[in-house]
Every structure is written in C-alpha cells, then in structure tokens.
Structures
1.
Amino acid sequence: MNAQEDAQETVTFAKEITFDILNSDIKVPPMPSNGSKLMSMAQEPLKKIDISEFCKLIEPDPGLFSMVLQLANSPFYRGVDEIVSLRSAITRIGLQEAINSVNLYFLQRFLPNLSELHGFSAKDYWAFSWACAMAGRRLGHPNLTTNTLPGELYIAGLLHGIGKLILAIHHSREFFMCIEKARTHERPLHTVFLDELGTTDNAIAAKLMTAWNLPSRICNAVQFYQDPYAAPKEHREIAGLTQFAYRIAAMSQIGNNGDGIFMDLESAWISEQPISPLSKKEFQKNVVEEILSTLGKKSESITGVSPPEKETPTESKLYLGNQQHLAASNNAGSKITKKGILGWIKSLFH
C-alpha cells in the first residue's frame, strides 16, 4: 500500500469512527436513575445534601453498601472498632468522601469493562480519573474565588476520560496504536487521536455526557479542557480548572492518562488569568503541593493504586509550553530525582 492509499484509509477510518461514536451506533447503556441522582448529589454543596436520602440510594445496592463499609475500614480511615453499619461508615469517612467514592465505584461498575492493554489498564484509568476529580474539587474551593462549584469539577474530573474508555473498548487496535504513537513521539494523546481518528476522546466524552443529560457546564468542561480558550465564554473557567486538575493528576503519577508527555502548569489556562489566585506562583505552588499530598495519602485506600515512591517524570518527558519553559526544566532536571516530586514542583515555579 502506497502513502496515498494509507492517507485515504486514515481519512475513511476517521469518518467511520466519528460517525459510529458520535451518532451512538456504539451502544452505551443509559444512565440508571440512581446514577443520575448520585451525580446530581455530588454536584450539590454539602449543606444541601440530606444524608437520609443518600443512605436510601446506597442501602438497596449491596455493591455500593459494601464499598462504603470497606472504605471506612481501610488503612486510611480505620479506627479501633470495625464499622458494620452504613451510617457509622459515613460518619467515619465523612459525607463528602462517601459521596465522592460512591460515584467513583458506581461508574466503575456501570461502564463497560476495559480489557487489559499494554500500558493502559482499567485500574490505572480509574485511579487517574479519581486523582483528576479530587484535584478538581479542591480547585473549586471558595478560597480560590471561582464561580464553579467543587462538585461540578469533581464530576468533570471523574468523567473527563470516558471517551478514552469507549475508544479502548470498541476500537482497541486503533486506540493502542495512538497510545504507542503518543509515547514514541512524546505528544499529548488527544492530538494523536485527532490526527489518526479524526476526532478526540473529549469530544466523544462530551457527546456521551450530553446523552446522559448532564449539565452543559460539565459537558463543556470535558469537551474543552484540553483547550479552554475554545470553550464558550461562560464555560471557560470550568474547562480551565478541569485542565489544571488534569495536569496536577498527571504530576501525581497516580494511574495512567495515556499521554506521552507531562504538561506543565505555567502554560495552563488558569495560570494566564491575572484575576485568579492560581496565577500567582507561590499561591499556586502551595495549592498544588496540598493536593498532591492529599492524593498520595488517600490513593491506595480508595483506588488500590499507590503513587510511586519519590518517582518523578524525567526531563525528556516534561511537556512545557515553549522553548523558554523547556530550558528552565532542563536546568532543573539534575535535581529531579534527588528532591522527589515536591522538589520538582518547586523547581517549576522558580
């Protein structure tokens, strides 16, 4: 097959896969009513949530019930006595953590199973999604003066990668090819998808979320988190914060997002907004360190995946927005392995 035929085959496949996925020829189950209620609850401020209503959603479901008990008795939350009742479990881990974890577990169980692919497993996928969701929730804290609710960012972070999941399940050969190309050429995976498949995983995810009747703010956050400037103006902030959460999750090295590179924080949309506290380097550094510390402490108990011990990205894997940033990372590169992840983060803000 010559180069012209190769190119034509790529174009044809791109049209087919885009049509199949975006027009729902690939059957994805409708969102069950309890799933919609759980995700709606996660978006609400904690003071508006009725714990009795939450318990009513959990108690009839043995899987969700046992997950909450297991979490309450995990190493991170374990007390002197074993927890055996749902309300006691929620009291120990906290209502917010219970709601977050139930949504994570529900989606893991509800969405189709992912076959093991080299370098991309279901366990790592969900661990990364959890890290992104948790980072997003922290970025919605009132002290960051955002107009986005923490729960909206949590759901956006949790669902940001479902387009990858759909591609991995229904087009595993092409998905694996894109994963390999992203790593070989050290590129963001979504740009490889666009080149090879004619669509992106976030576009697929947004279409699926729209079909589930999720709020347009969250759908647009997922569709445009890789390029917040392209988002509708009223949804640019939530897309930008989701982008920032995604990059923090990548820095945590919890799970796997499939990218061939690490993307820096300095070139993120939120870092370029003068009115945001996160555009201030010292403030940003403190928030990022706090988030990474929390993720490191909770990850194993909640996702079963531990962050690597003092492992950090090598300088060849750092993706920085321009050559000036790249030079800065190269100057700091010799210090990365000695100082650990937090030391590496600090070097990026100098």
2.
Amino acid sequence: MTDARRDAETAGRWQARLKGPTAQAVDTVPAGHDAGAALALLVAAALAEQHGILVVTADDAGLPPIANALDIAVRPLCLVLPAAGQIMPIALRASLSLLKSRLARADDSGDSLWSQQRRRLALADAEWRHCLAWCHEATEAEPQPATLLRVFPALVLPCRLAQVWSASAEWVIVVNVPSFVDSRQAWPGAQRTLVLNQGGSNAFAMPTVSDHQAGQRAEIDLLTQEVVDLELELATAQAEIADFTDRYHTLIGARIARLDAVQAELAARQLAANTDDIEAARKADQAHERAWRSRQEHERFSARDRSDARPFRADADLKKLFRSLAQKIHPDRARDDADRSWRTQLMTEANRAYRANDRQALQEIFSLWAEGAQSTGVPTAAAAEYELAHLKRRIGEIEAELNRLFASRLYELFTAAGIARRAGRDLLQEMAERLDADILLARTQLAR
C-alpha cells in the first residue's frame, strides 16, 4: 500500500469516528505512520463539509508535520500557531497575510471553500478588519483569541495555547496529549472529540537533543513552512498581476492613449478658437501632459520583449513542486553565508521557472540541490539562531511586498476584476467598450 493511500484510509477512519454516534471517540496513530499527512487530509475534509475543526497537539513540536502536509488550497484557512511567545506574533502575521492575499486573488480552488470563507468573514467583519489593521499598524492592539477564532475555520494549536484561549470547534482532534489519552471526556465546547493515541513509536518524535534544541528545531520548521507558503503566494500573486497587466495594457492602455490624444487635440483647438481664455489654456496644458504620459506608458509596454512570454497557468501539481523545492533550498535555511549564496541562486532560478510554468526547470533545480546538499546533522545553537533571524526577517519582507502590491491601484483593479469574474462578467472588456464609446464621442466633437 502506498503512503498516500494509507494516509487517506487513516484520515477516512478518523472522519468516520468523528461522525459516529458518540460525542467522544478514541483511536490510534499506526506505528511508524506519518500522522501529519493524515491529519492534514482530515482538516481538508472537515473544511469541505463546512465543519470548523481544531487539532490540538501535545506541544509546538507537533505543529510542523501538520503544517507541512496541509494542502495548498486550504493552507490559508488554517491558523497554525505555536505557544512560543517569541515566534507567535510572527507566525500570526504570516497567517493573516496569507489569508488576505488569497482572498484578494482569483478563486482558483475549484470549489466553494473560498466563497464560504468570504461569507464567514462578512459575518465577522469587525474582527477581520481588526486583524488587517494589526498587520499594517504597529500601534494596533494584537487581535484577541476570540477574534482569531472567528476568522479562521481551522486551527492547529498546542494544548497549552488551546486551553488558555478556550479554543474549540465542531470537530476537535486531540493528538498525543497524555491527560486525554485514557479519559472519556469531550473537549469543552466541541460537538465531536477524537482522541488519538500513539501506536508504538511516536509519529511526532523529534531528534534526541536537548529540550532547547528541540524547541529551536520546531520553531525553525514552523517558520520555514510559513516562509515557503508566503513565497509561493507572492510568486503566484506577482505572476498573476503580470498577466493582468499585459491584458490591461492591451485592452485599456492603448485605448486610454488614443482617447487622451484626441482630447488633447480637442483642447488645443478650443484654445486656438479663443487664445485669451486662461481656463482653456490651462485645460489644454493638462490634456497635453496627460496625453504625453499615457503615450509614454503605452510605448514602454509595447517595446517590451514578450516573444517568450506565456500566460501564467500554474496548476496544483506545479505549486506543490515549487513548494516542496522551496522547503529544501530556501536561502533562509542556510547556516552560513556561503550556503546562503548558493541557495539564493537556486531560489532565484526556481522563482523564474515557476512564473514560466517550467516544470522541467524546477525538477532540474531539485537535481542540482541533491548533488550539492550536505548533511549537517543537528545545527549548533549559533546556526539555529542564524536561521531563525533570517526566517523572521524574510517573513517581514514578504509581508511588506504583499502590502505594497495590495496598495497599488492596479491591484485594486485586479481584485475588482476577480469579483466581476465570479459574477460572470469581464470587467476589462466592459471598460474597453466604455472607452471606445468615449473615443467615438471625442472624435465626433473634434470633427465638428
């Protein structure tokens, strides 16, 4: 039996237990089994059936296996948050940025998940706005647990944090928490509770190192996944906006340049008819300046070499390939400057290949990585701190880039076009038709 099939069967069995006649059930994690993958499938199944879900792990070390396995389509809907105070705010900002970006982009999930999430956030509008304000304003108070619980339909939390927050959901899965293993109690506030015990070896076992090193390793693994998911989101958003920009200039930019040129000529003739009219002179200057700017912008776009350009059409498999590669090669996993330089080159090529839909190039980068990668074992404390510092910094950089993208007028139009598309309309085509009518009217006035 393949690992994927075994994961699916395990997740299906757990789902059946949650739908059983009792409010609380107990099951096991098979010995040597990757519980993270099965739990990720269970989270996706719960969301597909519109169930809120909470996965409770024994500690922070149980979070990375689940975060790494979550499907790309549902990852932004899941708040995976450690109890460690030094990285909790960073992970929270990353999760909120990821959710904001995915909501703004076109719905490519192929199902009702994102429509459901938009309706959910419409009901929690005040909470969602508070979360967004906190992401942008350093002075904004950090969102309260109740606020976050209303925003995210899926939660993956360590037991200590889940209890402090009084977190709950329709379905609650408690994984390897000793106090629940032999109990018959349900999680407070849950409709269904599934308690998972380890069968044989610990599916979430960490390397045999000190508690401090194990904690650092869990932090690094979790922040790496946050960075990789944000890298994928940023690369996808940039590629989609580049495609949208091409279509905008083709449909709209050329028409705006023509309309501005006709209006500038019309303003010049009106000034020529009355050379003493100061207001007409001002309008003629403005129209001439506007026509010059729009012509320059359109000419810059037209002069670009687009001979090798292809529309961005990344499917789920390409996204998974990029995500898996980025987890391995990301520069912020480097342990020294030389390693970082090599990883940066690979990551740059990976981003270029992803935006070009070049699956073969991504696989070749995988091969390059395998040839040059060296096993370094458990990192030293200094190396771990080096990784953590760069991971934290990169999360901040990506958030800033996404926020700049969101703030641009072109992205506002891109978002509006996505909303129109979901309603069966083509916003750019509608704008082009209105511009054609304006050009015709201006030319008619000019002819008179």
